[in-house]
Amino acid sequence: MTTLNRWKQSIASQSLKKRWAIGSGAVIFLSFATMSIILFIALKGWLYQQEEQEVNRTMRDLTSFFESQGPFLTVQDIQSNKGLMTSIVDKDQTVRLLNADGIELLQINDTSTFPLFDDIDLPRKGYALNTDKSSSISAIGNIQLGKFVGYVQLEHPLKGFQSIMTYIITTMLLFSVCALLLSGWIGYMLATYLLRPLQDLKISMDDVAAHGFEKDLAISYHAKDEIGELIVVYESMMAKLKSSFEKQQQFMADASHELRTPIQVVEGHLALLNRWGKDDPVILQESLEISLREVKQMKTLIDEMLELARGEQLKERPPTYIVKHTIDVIKEIMQVHPTVYIKHNLPVQEEIEILISSNVYQQIIRNILTNAIRYSKEPAHVSIAYEYKPDEVIVHIQDQGIGIAPNDISKIFDRFYRVDPARSRNLGGSGLGLSIVKMLMDNAGGSIFVKSEKDKGSTFSLMFPLIK
Q: Which residues form the Histidine kinase domain (predicted)?
């Protein structure tokens, strides 16, 4: 494994806050370092140019001074020029005067060593600079004093320049380290502040994992940013999961309760038969009939529970002509309940098409008609009518049964809910029929409304959107 891969794995194993701090610190450090390098190069060039200007200025002053004195220049004349001498000494420069053969005739100050005369590229006129050495800048120029022809040589040390560069680079490195530490700390604190909602979200998830939905979600974050959107989605998802979980718990509790009763009835009759009923034809017949009825009720209940669970997942909606399938359901009901009177008021336009599968539509109509017959006095009277509107069609199913109290209307679509549990059980109801109807209507994009009056009957109105 290469060093780069180890670094990547090491960083990937850190927490998001640490990675954020490392990333922000690295970016700020690299930015600061890049700016420092550019600034250092620019300052170095500018300061070196200032040093070259100092050498040029000194060389011009020296050339002008020597040539202005003529052939009668003396040491006393040089010493008397206090300004020139002071400038050379203050700048730590060294000057010497050479004849045409390179023999030194005069030296001012003694702070630097000169290169060998034979190694110097002599200019034909004027003076020339030599910037090859990093420790100093050299200059040599032609000079003529009457008949005397020679050279003036200058050595300008760069100690001050190098000290300033060392100070600048040390300062920049120190500031870079400080910037790295400060940016890392600021990045960590900022990450801690910005990621606090995510930390709260993690704690909430841990609570749900450990304790389920016993505790309410407590994430107080109202900013409309990406984290806020994530929390909104999470809260919506958890609310749906909580609702689904509670419905599942209630479903299991109700189902176990509903199945326990017929099982106990069958168990009791089987125990009765085992003790003495098998020798008594009357008790045997009665027990078998009751047991078969309870087993049939359990089978119906299980089928409805499976249908309810399966229907909540299936939302296929092919187009269907509902009038035709209503007639098919009526024929089926009349074969099972021949004494029932069902009045089917056909609409003017019989080819009413909606987006719902034929099986689903028949199941909706079948469940409502079965309920109407079950909770009506014999012979049951039921009427079916259609209300046609531009965007929807409403199927009204009216019975003359026992009706529903106003307080119970809002609950009749709940699973296993019965207006009168004892009476409903005697009539064979499981409490799931209207739950299935409501679920199927929702899946079809429709809605269901109920109007009822106690002891006078009920009207179920099924609203379906029409195909445009």
A: 254-468
